[in-house]
Amino acid sequence: MPTYDYKCNTCDKVFEHFQSMKDDPLTECLCEKKGNVTRMISNGGGIIFKGSGFYVTDYKKSTPTDKSTSSDK
Scanning 20, 52, 70, 72, which has its CA 20 to 30 A from the CA of 31? Predict the structure, then answer.
């Protein structure tokens, strides 16, 4: 369940509210003034992959190596 950001139009307070996607958006601030609220658009969480990465360590095929051994008999 996502966390939504709301801003009160009366007291300018910004707060987060944890609710289901099926729930109706809040219409009233949780402050004592009970002002109208506007749901803010957030940019979501970002993911940054650093380092050699899982592709190299988990999926990339290794280069063929010369497995021949030289035996002098």
Answer: 20
Cα–Cα distance measured from residue 19 to residue 39, given in angstroms and rounded to the nearest whole number = 12
Number of domains present in the structure of the chain: 1
Is 51 domain-assigned?
Answer: no
Q: Are 39 and 11 spatial neighbours (Cβ–Cβ below 8 Å)?
A: no
Contact (Cβ atoms closer than 8 angstroms) between residue 33 and residue 11:
yes
Q: What mean pLDDT is predicted for residues 49-73?
A: 63
Residue 73 lies in a domain: no
User: Residue 10: inside a domain, yes or no?
Assistant: yes
Residue 41 one-letter amino acid = I
